[in-house]
Input
Amino acid sequence: MARQRAYLLITVFALLLVLFPFLFWYMTWFGRKLTDGEIGEYLADRAKPRHAQHALVQVGERMARRDPAAARWYPQVAQLAASPLIELRQTAAWIMGQDHTYAPFHEGLRNLLADPQPMVRRNAALALSNFGDPAARPELLAMLRPYTIVSPAAGVVQYRLKLGEYVNPGTLVAHVGGIEVRSPLPGEVRDLSRREGSTVRAGDPLVEISADKEHAWEALRALWTVGTKEDLDDIQRYTRAVPGMPEKVQEQALMTMQAIRSRGTR
Output
């Protein structure tokens, strides 16, 4: 009896070791379908931001399917675009571009063009292009150019990467004193702007990263709609083979230039 009980306990323990990670994954996986009631509940859940993000993703999927019932959650989506959490602003910005008939989305996206986080600004600019709003142009052009990561404070810089390395959003690039400096964007390290161990001031350039291939492609697609002749110099650079850029970027640049010239936009 004691042996059977011990065997049963070991079996239960083994099952729990498998079950707990599965439940955690299942409850946090954004692909898990939510009911209408859960979507409304999750969008209003300020205690668990991942719940709100999960619901945003599901609303975005319904919008992509042109489900008219998704409109019931539009006011909550617009509210989350003003969240203090970057993940929620970023996700809300992306899905608000899927319905250009809802005026509060347009207004909210224009506000997000001034967001302190570049990923939020970029999602807002891409979404605004669906509204045909030329206010997106400056941020779209920035997506075609290198990005400079600056020091957040004064101190001694110690790098945590090398030239040619690829970084993702959140990658640790350096320490300045005791402060971590992380990349807000994806891209390849093109330049380390200060010597290792040198003293920098707040705002000094630290790292230059290249334009990301997917960001460049998305920006070129958006400029196909809102670009003007003033943007052609930035676009033309991508009509030639650029190291690290796939062929689809070059093809999109050519199509975008043709579209801008054909409509005679200033």
